[in-house]
Design brief:
324 residues, 66% helix, 2 strands, single chain, globular, mainly alpha, 16 helices
C-alpha cells in the first residue's frame, strides 16, 4: 500500500495552468465559517432526506460513541473496508519516472480497454475543457498529463471502497458520498497551489476523507430501528467530525503520507495545516456543487455569492459534468 502511494507522490507535477492561484482563499473569516456550518447542515439534510428521522439525544450519542470507539482501534476500523488494491504496478512505477514518454504510457494504458475509456472521458471533462473533442488515447494523455493520470488511477482505486455498502441507508447514500468525494478531491487539488499544499496530496485527502462516513452510516443503521439514521443537521455536523477522525485512523493504518493523515483529522482546527485548510475548502465547494445540481441551492444564494470567493466560484464551475 505504502509503495504505490509513494510512487504516485514522487512524480507529481503541477496543476493545470487553468487552476490559477487561490489568492484570497487563504484568508478565512467568521462569515466564511458561518457559511461552512450552513453548507454542512444543508448537505446532511439533503443526504439523509430519504432515510433520516428525529432521533433522541441518547441514540445520537450512542452512534457517535460507536464511531469514536472504532476510530480508536485502527485494526478493527481498517478491517471493515477492503484494502486498496495496487493498481497496474508497472504503470505506477513509470508515472514516477520523469523520463517516461507519453508513448510509453499509452502502450501500457491501451492494454486495458476500460482504462482507455476512462482516460479519454477524463480528457473531455469540464476540468480540462478541450477546444475539440479528444478521441485518441495519445491525445488524451497529452491533455491530462502524468499528474492527471495519477489522480485518475487513485480515483479508480478508491471507487469500490466508498461504494462497498450492500444494504440499507448506507447503500443508498454511498453513490452520493462518492460523488462528493470525487468533487472534493478535484476542488482540493485546484485550491492546493494557492494555499501552499501539494496537489496530489490534496487529491488523496479529498478521496479518503469520506471513507469513515460510509462506515459510520453502516454503524448507525445497525444501532437504530428500520435502518434509518438521525436526520438532524446538528447531529450531521458532529457525525462528519467523528467520521473524519475514523477516516484519518484508517489512512494512518494504511500508511498514507503523514501530512494527508493529519490534514483529514485537522479540518476545522484553529492551527490547521495548509493541506487541512485546502481540504476544508474543497469539501465545502464539492458539497455546494451537489446542492446546486439537486436544486437545493440556487446560483445566487448567499452560500455561493458570499460564502465563496471568486476563485472558489471558478472551482465550483469546474466541478460540473465530471466523469463518474
Amino acid at each position: 500500500m505504502k509503495n504505490w502511494i509513494n510512487r504516485m507522490l514522487s512524480g507529481a507535477d503541477k496543476a493545470p495552468d487553468a487552476a490559477g492561484t487561490a489568492g484570497s482563499s487563504q484568508q478565512a473569516d467568521e462569515l466564511g465559517d458561518d457559511h461552512g456550518v450552513q453548507v454542512d447542515a444543508a448537505y446532511y439534510r439533503w443526504l439523509t432526506a430519504s432515510g433520516g428521522y428525529q432521533a433522541g439525544a441518547d441514540v445520537e450519542e450512542h452512534i457517535l460513541d460507536l464511531v469514536r470507539t472504532l476510530a480508536a482501534d485502527p485494526q478493527a476500523a481498517s478491517g471493515l473496508v477492503p484494502r486498496i488494491p495496487e493498481l497496474i504496478p508497472k504503470l505506477l512505477r513509470d508515472l514516477a519516472d520523469d523520463d517516461v514518454s507519453t508513448g510509453d504510457l499509452a502502450r501500457q494504458v491501451e492494454q486495458d480497454l476500460v482504462l482507455v475509456a476512462e482516460v479519454i472521458r477524463e480528457a473531455n471533462s469540464a476540468y480540462y475543457r478541450p477546444l475539440q473533442a479528444v478521441k485518441s488515447l495519445d491525445a488524451a494523455l497529452m491533455m491530462i498529463g502524468q499528474n492527471g493520470l495519477r489522480m485518475l488511477l487513485a480515483r479508480i482505486a478508491f471507487r469500490p471502497l466508498i461504494k462497498m455498502a450492500d444494504q440499507g441507508f448506507a447503500r443508498q447514500a454511498a453513490p452520493l458520498v462518492w460523488n462528493q468525494s470525487e468533487k472534493c478531491a478535484l476542488a482540493s487539488s485546484l485550491m492546493a497551489p494557492g494555499l501552499g499544499a501539494g496537489v496530489f496530496e490534496a487529491y488523496l485527502a479529498g478521496l479518503m476523507q469520506n471513507l469513515g462516513l460510509v462506515v459510520a452510516f453502516r454503524l448507525a443503521e445497525r444501532a437504530v430501528e428500520n435502518g434509518k439514521i438521525p436526520g438532524s443537521s446538528e447531529f450531521g455536523r458532529r457525525l462528519f467530525d467523528v467520521s473524519r477522525g475514523l477516516s484519518s485512523t484508517i489512512a494512518a493504518h494504511w500508511e498514507f503520507p503523514p501530512d494527508v493523515v493529519e490534514a483529514i483529522a485537522g479540518v476545522g482546527q484553529p492551527d490547521a495545516s495548509p493541506l487541512a485548510q485546502t481540504l476544508e475548502r474543497g469539501d465545502r465547494i464539492a458539497k455546494l456543487r451537489l446542492l446546486l445540481d439537486a436544486h437545493v441551492v440556487l446560483e445566487d444564494d448567499a452560500l455561493v455569492t458570499e460564502g465563496l470567493d471568486s476563485f472558489e466560484r471558478r472551482c465550483l464551475g469546474k466541478l460540473t459534468d465530471l466523469p463518474g
